[in-house]
């Protein structure tokens, strides 16, 4: 509420009248200023009280907020409103933390901090929208700040230290909320989020998600198909195709289950746990397949072995492993992509050409992913046999390292396992100060590299083991060649 003196002539006339009554113009201005100051103080105090009451309202979950504030669904909930509510919840956590109440329970100081992520940032759609319309790396940056905040709370840091982490998180949330509200037209009521600009942004978001999430899976599937066709093992390729198709079907089922679970609990943590476990399982299978391919790279008899189909039953287990690898690679991303697309379809009706934008993003994204697949298959068949074995096994090893980092992140940070275990595990989940520059990099995010010891530590160990395995394999093959030459 503002008080505006818009007509200077009125002020002059009043001054002249009062001058005639024995008051000077200077005295009149001074007295008017004093009156205005008193009025402003009273008004500001009243406004602050009302605002404080409004800002002090907090909800432990987005679902409860919607039920209380928007039961009929007529109100447009902007991302700034969501950021405000998360901020209120964090402030409540700080109030409890500073007051020294118990940690656990509904009235404990920890619940507001942990609910701000699982029951707000993810469940409200904030996370997925940032991932689509801003970047996936930005999501990881914000999620890491959530982790830093909870780690500070769990480690009983001082009020000022916890407040610093909370403030840093708030800055990120409001920055992203402002960008999203601009994109959706919430900052301009006349646009109402229905312009063609929003449709193009939605198309770009869906396209980016399809390519980003599908690329990891298709690279693995394409490499295995090229490898099998090059060795004239078309029957083995069948296992990979079957594994991929089954993964798509399983992704649809899992997406439905997760949608029901997250709607019922207002929490998306089950999705993160499933993705984390799937990724870590994929790591074990990828390492196995990579070493198997590497062992065949120096085998002179391998081509004859495949061509003649001798002892086919001995390789059946390996074919199942390839099919299972394809299944895990597709399944890991499939359910998440479906849930992403579901969210965009739910918003499509709010914008002009919204459904066209979503369908176009999905179709063109899948077309690009399939083009990448055929390119890998084509150029893979052009490579000589030995380089193909080496390149494929190295690629599998790299992807296993990437999946290890992503799996640890999804399971321990997004899934909340680090804070449940606490202690050393949670202390390893925070940002490594010297590596903070890694935040915000889409390339590093694609390869599952994050600035935390909880993810980097296992990756470093696996990298050392992988390098040792490759060196040992090459050294052994060199000795075998020398022996054959001597013979």
Can you give a write-up of this model?
- This protein has 487 residues and is mainly α.
- Helix content is 78%, strand content 0%.
- It has 19 helices and no strands.
- It has helices at 8-20, 25-55, 62-69, 79-99, 110-121, 126-133, 136-154, 159-184, 196-230, 234-265, 269-296, 302-308, 316-348, 354-382, 385-414, 417-421, 423-427, 442-446, 453-486.
- α6 (126-133) crosses α8.
- The radius of gyration is 30 Å and the shape is globular.
- The termini are far apart.
Question: Tags for this entry?
Answer:
0% strand; mainly alpha; globular; 487 residues; disordered N terminus
Strand content: under 5%
What does the radius of gyration come to?
30 Å
Which class best fits the helix and strand makeup? mainly alpha
Write down the overall mean pLDDT.
75
Helical content band: over 70%
Total strand count, please?
0
Assign an overall shape.
Answer: globular
User: Could you list the spans in which at least 5 consecutive residues all have pLDDT below 50?
Assistant: 1-26, 28-54, 190-195, 299-314
Biggest sheet layout: none
Write the layout of secondary structure elements.
Layout: H1 8-20, H2 25-55, H3 62-69, H4 79-99, H5 110-121, H6 126-133, H7 136-154, H8 159-184, H9 196-230, H10 234-265, H11 269-296, H12 302-308, H13 316-348, H14 354-382, H15 385-414, H16 417-421, H17 423-427, H18 442-446, H19 453-486
What is the structure about, briefly put?
By secondary structure, the chain is mostly helical. The protein has helices at residues 8-20, 25-55, 62-69, 79-99, 110-121, 126-133, 136-154, 159-184, 196-230, 234-265, 269-296, 302-308, 316-348, 354-382, 385-414, 417-421, 423-427, 442-446, 453-486.
């Amino acid at each position: 509420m503002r008080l505006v003196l818009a007509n200077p002539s009125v002020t002059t006339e009043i001054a002249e009248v009062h001058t005639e009554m024995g008051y000077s113009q200077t005295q009149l201005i001074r007295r008017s200023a004093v009156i205005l100051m008193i009025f402003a103080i009273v008004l500001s105090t009243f406004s602050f009280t009302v605002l404080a009451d409004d800002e002090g309202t907090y909800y432990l979950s987005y679902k409860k907020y919607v039920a209380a504030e928007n039961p009929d669904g007529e109100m447009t909930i902007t991302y700034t409103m969501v950021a405000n509510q998360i901020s209120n919840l964090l402030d409540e956590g700080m109030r409890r933390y500073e007051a020294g109440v118990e940690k656990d329970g509904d009235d404990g100081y920890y619940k507001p901090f942990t609910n701000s992520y699982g029951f707000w940032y993810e469940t409200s759609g904030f996370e997925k929208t940032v991932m689509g319309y801003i970047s996936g790396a930005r999501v990881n940056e914000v999620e890491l700040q959530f982790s830093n905040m909870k780690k500070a709370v769990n480690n009983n840091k001082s009020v000022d230290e916890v407040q610093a982490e909370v403030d840093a998180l708030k800055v990120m949330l409001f920055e992203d909320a402002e960008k999203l509200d601009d994109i959706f037209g919430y900052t301009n009521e006349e646009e109402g989020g229905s312009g063609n600009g929003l449709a193009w942004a939605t198309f770009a978001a869906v396209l980016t998600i399809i390519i980003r999430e599908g690329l990891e899976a298709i690279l693995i599937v394409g490499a295995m198909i090229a490898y099998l066709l090059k060795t004239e093992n078309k029957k083995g390729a069948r296992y990979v195709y079957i594994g991929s198709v089954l993964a798509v079907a399983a992704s649809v089922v899992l997406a439905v289950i997760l949608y029901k679970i997250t709607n019922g609990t207002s929490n998306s943590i089950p999705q993160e746990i499933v993705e984390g476990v799937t990724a870590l399982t994929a790591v074990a299978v990828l390492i196995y397949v990579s070493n198997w391919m590497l062992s065949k790279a120096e085998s002179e008899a391998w081509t004859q072995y495949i061509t003649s189909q001798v002892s086919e039953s001995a390789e059946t287990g390996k074919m199942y492993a390839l099919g299972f690898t394809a299944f895990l690679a597709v399944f890991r991303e499939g359910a998440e992509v479906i849930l992403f697309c579901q969210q965009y379809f739910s918003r499509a009706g709010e914008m002009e050409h919204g459904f066209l934008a979503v369908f176009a993003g999905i179709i063109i994204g899948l077309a690009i992913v399939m083009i990448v697949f055929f390119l890998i298959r084509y150029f893979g068949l052009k490579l000589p046999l030995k380089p193909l074995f080496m390149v494929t096994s190295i690629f599998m090893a790299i992807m296993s390292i990437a999946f290890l980092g992503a799996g640890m992140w999804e399971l321990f940070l997004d899934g909340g396992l680090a804070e449940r275990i606490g202690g050393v595990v949670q202390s390893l989940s925070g940002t490594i100060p010297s590596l903070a520059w890694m935040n915000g990099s889409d390339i590093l995010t694609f390869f599952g590299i994050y600035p935390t010891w909880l993810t980097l530590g296992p990756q470093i160990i696996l990298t050392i083991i992988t390098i040792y395995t490759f060196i040992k394999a090459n050294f052994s093959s060199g000795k075998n060649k020398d022996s054959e030459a001597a013979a």
